[in-house]
């Protein structure tokens, strides 16, 4: 075995040991779940986003129907165990599965 192969093996072995030795706290924050969308955020407010579809202002958003929720919206990316999940409209944030905004699109299927 030549020196190059030995060096490569040593590097791979060292990298594997280092990776398995990382404490959980060293995992980048970007891998953790996003924060919840703030209803008062200008973008969320402009779209009428509410964490609870029952709280939508029907006068301001007459297209809203009570059975429309993030969970049955095409743009919802699936809820976690607590009922929150990603949405294509709010990248990096989470919306409530029972929420709604005026970008709601009926989920296909
Ligand atoms: S686009 Fe759909 S999933 Fe996203 S906040 Fe609006 S209703 Fe909810």
Rounded to the nearest angstrom, the radius of gyration is: 22 Å
Cofactors, ions, other ligands: iron/sulfur cluster
Specify the CATH class of the domain at 29-96. Answer: Few Secondary Structures
Compute the number of helices. 2
User: CA-to-CA gap between the ends?
Assistant: 58 Å
Shape: globular
Ranges where pLDDT stays below 50 over 5 or more residues in a row are: 14-32
How many beta-strand elements? 4
What does this structure look like?
The chain has 109 residues and is of the alpha+beta class. It has a domain at 29-96: High potential iron-sulphur protein (High-Potential Iron-Sulfur Protein, Chain A, Irregular). It has two helices and four strands. The chain has a four-stranded mixed beta sheet, with no helix packed on it. It is globular, with a radius of gyration of 22 Å. Mean pLDDT is 82; it is low at 14-32. Bound molecules: iron/sulfur cluster. Iron/sulfur cluster binds next to loops.
